[in-house]
Write a structure and sequence with these properties.
This protein is mostly helical. The protein is built from three helices and no strands. The chain is elongated and about 85 Å long.
């Protein structure tokens, strides 16, 4: 029988408000408010580098697969890739057109990835 002094499965003992665990201490380091802005900026830079490299890689793929240049989507990707790789056009002058496109658009894609991810990693360490 239930004696009233010990807890039973049907009548658990009331919670003691003084025995609750203290609230966790504020975290220091990366999780505090000081690093949130740097983390967000790093994410933006990282994402922009990925998007730029994605457009360049997609244009290489569309070119090598001989996509229809009259298509609006293909024309948009080509325009973006030309804009992103404008500074690196004709660095490589090869007779094979496919290799020329691969290297002239692939080099800026690698540079965008390296610089963007490197800058993001540096910002995350701040």
């Amino acid at each position: 029988m239930y004696s009233g002094n010990s807890p039973s499965p049907y009548h658990p003992a009331p919670a003691d408000p003084y025995s609750a665990a203290p609230p966790p201490a504020p975290r220091s380091g990366r999780g505090n408010q000081r690093g949130v802005g740097a983390d967000r900026l790093a994410l933006i830079i990282h994402s922009l580098a990925d998007i730029a490299a994605g457009f360049l890689g997609l244009w290489i793929l569309l070119y090598l697969l001989e996509a229809n240049h009259a298509n609006v989507f293909v024309d948009f990707v080509h325009g973006m890739a030309d804009w992103l790789a404008g500074w690196s056009q004709d660095i490589f002058m090869m007779e094979t057109e496919g290799l020329r496109v691969f290297f002239n658009y692939g080099l800026p894609a690698l540079i965008y990835l390296a610089v963007g991810h490197g800058a993001a990693a540096w910002l995350r360490r701040l």
